[in-house]
Amino acid sequence: MPRTDLESHGPVRFGPPLPDDGLPVLPELAAVLAAAAARGASEPVGGGTALLESACGYWDRRGLPTGPDRVMAGPGAPALLLALTAALGGDVLVPRPCAAWWAPYARLLGRRVFHVATPAECGGVPDPYALMETVRRVRAEGGDPRLLVLSVADDPTATVAPPELVHEAVEAAAGEGLHLVSDETWRDTVHAPHDTVLVSPAEMLPEKVTVVTDLAGALLPPGWPAAVARVPVSEANGDGLHARVLDVLTALGARVAAPVAVAAAHALTEPEPVTARVAAAVRLHARVAAAAHTVAVTAGAVARPPQAGRHLYADLGPLRSALAAHGVGDAQELEDFLAVRLGMPAPGGHRFGDDLGALRVRLSTGALLAGTDEERARCLDSPAPLELPHVRQALILLESVFDDLRDDAQRWEPPR
């Protein structure tokens, strides 16, 4: 089987991108971008006035009062996290698993990255006791842990951490003197917003938490890179950090493209067409994710029910015997195997910090909407999107692949 990554099974240096939404660009945003493309001016490093004021309004509406002197923008969340990591210094702690792009940017700066186990209920937030133990062990070994990156609405696990668990993790991090970066890229993609309580760590500890939001999560197409960050409100922690991050962004030349900045500023004001599209997209991906989850668990895989985002994280460990018959013994081989059979990217769990030997995979719901622009647009308006021919065909293929593995596992199951 041809490999898609290092033959040596060495460290994963680059991870997959954010899960695509699989949908056409909102016409209103396309018109805003097209009008702005005629202008020749460049956007300032850190974002111009319109973009920063729109970001402040966005956070104000979410219970996080913010002034423009506490906000900055960059060409995607990775650039902002790189700048924050450089500005804060020290070693970095992340949950296991975590977003594929978190660890590589710390390693790029020569910082050590330590993974911390997550509780059984969710991903994205470290178990508080495991966090304290890891910090103390790292310090005992001469390390300098200073930064914890977490996500309440998580990539890759698609879970939403309960507020009480977030509070415990935030308290543990604060007790160990860590600065927190809360990646809130997926906070506006919660599948059941009226039944799911999402609380930002910045609401619990505003003087020690920086919030980063990649607008590709809900407001902009993934191909229009733009993200915003909100540094702590306190002068002691906010002023110096804001200045240092801007210095790093300036050195990198990390500016948001001017037309994208105009579209981002417009989207962040959340006019009705934008909020309607976000709500429709969330409903659609929630349905597709629930269907994919049913397929996976029916076949014998283990997966938490997806609560946010456009993805499903599944553990195919119970199907190991069937996969072994196909020459699949680790996450990289699982990635290759499923990518060929499903005709879509299926990044293995090793890309998210999980062990290579664990048979885990992230499946994107956007890939299950593949079709013409007209077919993908119909998904948003249809009362039964899962019954549309191109979506139904994709789900049937997914079900066929997983059912075959279940049947193979039953044949290979040793007699009792």
Describe the SSE topology.
Elements: H1 27-36, H2 49-60, E1 71-74, H3 77-88, E2 91-96, H4 102-108, E3 113-117, H5 128-140, E4 145-150, H6 163-175, E5 179-183, H7 201-204, E6 209-214, E7 227-230, H8 235-252, H9 258-268, H10 272-298, E8 311-315, H11 320-325, H12 331-342, E9 360-364, H13 373-381, H14 389-412
Parallel strand pairs: 2-3, 2-4, 4-5, 5-6
Antiparallel strand pairs: 1-7, 6-7, 8-9
Helix pairs in contact: 1-9, 2-9, 3-8, 5-6, 10-14
Keywords: Aminotransferase, Pyridoxal phosphate, Transferase
GO molecular function: pyridoxal phosphate binding; transaminase activity
Cofactor: pyridoxal 5'-phosphate
CATH superfamily of the largest domain: Type I PLP-dependent aspartate aminotransferase-like (Major domain)
Helix content: 40-55%
CATH class of the largest domain: Alpha Beta
Low-confidence parts, pLDDT < 50 over ≥5 residues?
Answer: 1-12
Distance between termini?
33 Å
Using the 3D structure, state the CATH architecture of the largest domain: 3-Layer(aba) Sandwich
CA-based shape? globular
Question: How is the CATH topology of the largest domain named?
Answer: Aspartate Aminotransferase, domain 2
Give the rounded overall mean pLDDT: 93
**How many helix segments?**
14
SS content category: alpha/beta
Query: Order of strands across the widest beta sheet?
Result: 1-7-6-5-4-2-3
Content of β-strand: 5-15%
Largest sheet: 7 strands, mixed
What is the radius of gyration?
21 Å
Order of helices and strands: HHEHEHEHEHEHEEHHHEHHEHH
How many beta-strand elements?
9
Could you say how many structural domains there are in total? 2
